[in-house]
DNA sequence: TTCAATTTGGACTAGCAGTCTAAAAATAGA
DNA sequence: TCTATTTTTAGACTGCTAGTCCAAATTGAA
C-alpha cells in the first residue's frame, strides 16, 4: 500500500484513539498528516471509509497475532484459547475500540454499521468454533449460547472496568469468564438447556468465509484426532500441516509432499484437497 | 411540567427512536413539535440536555413499573426478579435505547457521557442488590461478579439478536441467563472464586442514593425474614409496610400506626426510623 | 525535455448546533 | 378593558462540519 496513504491512516488512527471519531475532523487529520484535502479524498471516499480501512488493518493484525499464538500447539489447548481472546481484548483496549465502535453506530452511515455488525458476528462465530475445538463436539448444540455468554461476560467486565476507571486485569477476567463457561458447559449438556440454534451464527457469515472456515475447522479437528494416536515423527508432520494450512497462503506442493509421509492419509487428503482447491 | 415542553420531549423522543440521536436535527424537532428555535432553547440548554431529560423520564417510568411488579410479593421471589429485568429490557427495546445510548458516547459531551455511565452503574448496582435478595447473603462476596455476568449475558444476547434481526424472546433469554447465573452461584461459593470486590459498585454510587438503597435493602430483607415465621395477619401488615416503604413518598404516620400492630418490632422500628429520617 | 499522473490549496455547497434580537402574541393584574 | 410583563416567534447570524471541484503547481518517468 501507498506509504503516504499509510501515514494518513496512522495519523487518523492516533487522533481517533485520542479524541474519538466524531470529535476528530478531517481538517485535524489533514494537519496532522500534512496532506491536502484533495489528496485525502483521493485516498478515501469519505471519513467513514477511512475508519473502515483502519478497522480492517487492526483486524488483520489481530488475526495474525492469533494465528501466531496457535502455531505449533494443539487447537484444544485452553491456554491458547485464553491468549487468543486476550489478543483481541488488548487490541481493543490499545485502540480504544470500545469507544470507536460505539461511535460508528451514531453515524447515519449504513455501510459502516453493517461493517461493524459483521465484525461482531465474525468474532462470535470464531469464539463458537474455538469453543467446540477446546471443549469437544458434545458442546456443539450449545455452542452459540456459550459463545455469546463468554463474549458477553468478558466484554461487559472490561467495559465496566474501563468506564469505572479501574485497573483491567485482562488475564484474570478471561480466566474467570472461562471458568464460568466451563461450569456452564457441563450444566447445559446435562440439562440439555439450549437457547439459540447453534447454526444461527453460521447463517450470519458471508458465504465464502463460512465454507472456508467450516472446512478449516473440520481439517484441524481431524488432524488433532490423528495426532493423539500417532508416534513422534508422525505428530511432527501433522503439526506442520496444521501450521501450513492455517497460514494465509498455504504452499500446496509442500503440503502434498508432506502428506505422502502421513499414514492413513486418504480421508485427510480428500479434506485438504477440498480446502485448498475451493 | 409544562405541557408544551412535554410535547417537545415526545416529538424528539419519537424522532430519536426512529432516526437516531445524531441523525435528528434540532430543526426536525422544531418542525415536528411546531415550536420555534427560540422556544426550544428556552426549554433546553442544548440538544444533549433534551436527550438527558428523555432518559430521565424513561428511567423514572421504568423504576415505577419495577416497583409495581414487586408490590405485595416477597423480595426473594425469582419470578419478580425476572419480570423486573424484563421491564428494563422491554423499555430499552421499545425506545431503541441500545442505539440511543451508544449515540451518546460519540458526542463530545462529557456531561452526557457521565450521565449514561452513571445510569449503567446504577443498573448494575440494582442487579447486585437484587441478586443478594433473591439468592441469599452467602452470595454477597460474589455479587458484583454475578451482577456483571447476568447483565452481560442478557444485554449481549438481546443486542446480538437485535443486530441479527432475529426474534427477541425476552422471557426465554432472561430465564436462560438466570439459570446460568444460578449454577454459577453454587460454583463460586464452593470454589470461593471471586474476581471483583463486591463493594466496587457501591463505591460508584452517588453518596445519597447509596446510603438510602443500602438501608432500604436491609429493611426489605429484615421484613422478608420476619414474614417467613409469621401468621397470616402479621404477614399482611409486613407486606403493607414493604409496599409503603418502597413508594416514592412513604406516609410516615401510616407506617408508624401499622408498626404498632407488628410483634417484636423493636429492631424494625429502629431500621425504619433510620430509613425515613435520613 | 516532454508528458502524464499526482498533489495542492482554497473556494464553494449544504447542513449542523447554538446565539441573539426585535417584533408579535399571549397572559395576568387592576 | 386597559396595561404591564412574560413568552413565543422567525429568522439572521456565527462558526463549525463533510464533501466537491478545479485550476495551478509539483513530481516522476521516458
TrEMBL record, chains A, B:
Residues 25-44 bind DNA. It comes from the Bacteria. It comes from Domibacillus epiphyticus. GO terms for molecular function: DNA binding. PROSITE patterns: HTH_TETR_1, HTH_TETR_2. This is HTH tetR-type domain-containing protein. The keyword DNA-binding applies. PANTHER family: ACREF/ENVCD OPERON REPRESSOR-RELATED, TRANSCRIPTIONAL REGULATOR, TETR FAMILY. Residues 2-62 form the HTH tetR-type domain.
